[in-house]
Amino acid sequence: MRLTERLDDLIADWLPRxxxxxxxxxxxxxxxxxxxxxxxxxxxxxxxxxxxxxxxEQVDRYQVPVGLRRELPGRLEYAEIGRIDGVHxxxxxxxPELTRVLLEKMADCSDAGPLAxxxxxxxxxxxxxxxxxxxxxxxxxxxxxxxxxxxxxxxxAGINPDLExxxxxxxxxxxxxxxxxxxxxxxxxxxxxxxxxxxxxxRTGTDGWQLAGTSVRDxxxxxxxxxxxxxxxxxxxxxxxxxxxxxxxxxxxxxFGTGVMxxxxxxxxxRQMHARLNEACAAVPQxxxxxxxxxxxFDAFAKVDEPLMVxxxxxxxxxxxxxxxxxxxxxxxFEGEPAKPLEERRRPAHPLRDVAGMLRSYDYAAxxxxxxxxxxxxxxxxxxxxxxxxxxxxxxxxxxxxxxxxGVDPAAHxxxxxxxxxxxxxxxxxxxxxxxPSWLHIPLSSIAALSAxxxxxxxxx
Length: 461
Ligand SMILES: Nc1ncnc2c1ncn2[C@@H]1O[C@H](COP(=O)(O)OP(=O)(O)O)[C@@H](O)[C@H]1O
Ligand SMILES: O=P(O)(O)O[C@H]1O[C@H](CO)[C@@H](O[C@H]2O[C@H](CO)[C@@H](O)[C@H](O)[C@H]2O)[C@H](O)[C@H]1O
Prior knowledge:
Layout: H1 7-14, E1 30-40, E2 45-55, E3 58-69, E4 80-84, E5 87-91, H2 96-108, E6 111-112, E7 115-119, E8 129-131, E9 139-143, E10 147-151, E11 154-155, H3 161-171, E12 180-188, E13 191-200, E14 206-207, H4 208-221, H5 235-256, E15 258-261, H6 263-283, H7 291-302, E16 308-311, E17 322-325, E18 328-331, H8 342-345, H9 352-371, H10 380-404, H11 414-435, H12 441-452
Antiparallel strand pairs: 1-2, 2-3, 3-5, 3-11, 4-5, 6-7, 7-12, 8-9, 9-10, 10-13, 12-13, 14-17, 15-16, 17-18
Helix pairs in contact: 3-5, 4-9, 5-10, 6-7, 6-11, 7-11, 9-10, 9-11, 9-12, 11-12
GO molecular function: ATP binding; kinase activity
Organism: Actinoallomurus iriomotensis
Domain Maltokinase N-terminal cap: 14-95
């Protein structure tokens, strides 16, 4: 049975409920199968399916490994997409009986139709997978506690920067990235394009988002204490994270080189920031009242009177992209911002862009519990004050660690860091509107607070 003709409607109903679907702000006009590849035959069987989703003018491609079974065991019911001629069609990432084949094919470096499976080391294959419950834009399969295989859900033609930078950092001997073991690719628009990558699973790791969240919860639970007085103070970890970030930036510069941004390019970047702001204001009217202050920050950036060093950077740096293991901080997910075109994500940028991303994340960590009034009790003004205090303490510690380990000192480049932070917050407004509308309040309230604070240079010291 070919799915091509039958899957479209089923998927169109199911897609908007998937965390990784990046078009929740618009209706779906059409879903069509671009290609499908049988990877396991029989019952159960596995088809690797690439679909094209049309929403107005925009067409995005996604990959869905589709499982087919005549009888669907209870443990897979939640993964069901629908039924075709009585056969259960489901998201196969949740079926370890089927996902094994991905690992086996990578181990064998084999091809299946348009799909190429590759590995760069001998792989252990007798491992069951579990779809990661992490809050993420793609889907990761954890094999045993040995490997993690990230299936990129929304596909872009070309090598994924996550794979590209992980390889480069491994070559530069970075001690802050997990080992890369393999990948899956296919041709899209005539270019070799990444579908998945397989890395070492950091079994002793906890991600920075969880650690920071625990620290914030500790603070909210102790109404009388300040951020530096509670047991879960995170500032020392933030400082170490800053240092690890500076080391990764150094290794990226070694692996991929550096350049200098001419004044015209700085102005062009400021113009793009304005354009992104305008686009976000059109899509999210709640942003409009802050547009003036945001624009001022972008104008100040356009006038920065110094050569800006650029290099390959992480591109979407936040607390969910770092893990603390027993040996220190590890950085993950060098994919860049998933909504941006690939060529933009691969473009060298100023390293403070990553610093700004992490600074925004401290704000998110402090505020996300406040989104749901039931998650935390207390006076809203006092909670807002405490969120701000926690974020400031950790932001400062991160910047100190970064500068002391040889990174560009954020405190000495206020116009740059402020513009990058605002630009990131504007991106987040769009990201939340499209992916997690109930979180939109977080970047909006940070923008309100940031725009109320004095502009760089206007402070009395
Ligand atoms: N190598 C790894 N070892 C252990 N956990 C990992 C590893 N890579 C990612 N994770 C977990 O998966 C989450 C999402 O990973 P990430 O690469 O950021 O995916 P996405 O691009 O889909 O957001 C991380 O926050 C982390 O909790
Ligand atoms: O991890 P991804 O590469 O998929 O990044 C996207 O999703 C992130 C959320 O999962 C989003 O990050 C935003 O939310 C985080 C908390 O969930 C917060 O720590 C970040 O600071 C905030 O930007 C990221 O922007 C998006 O590209």
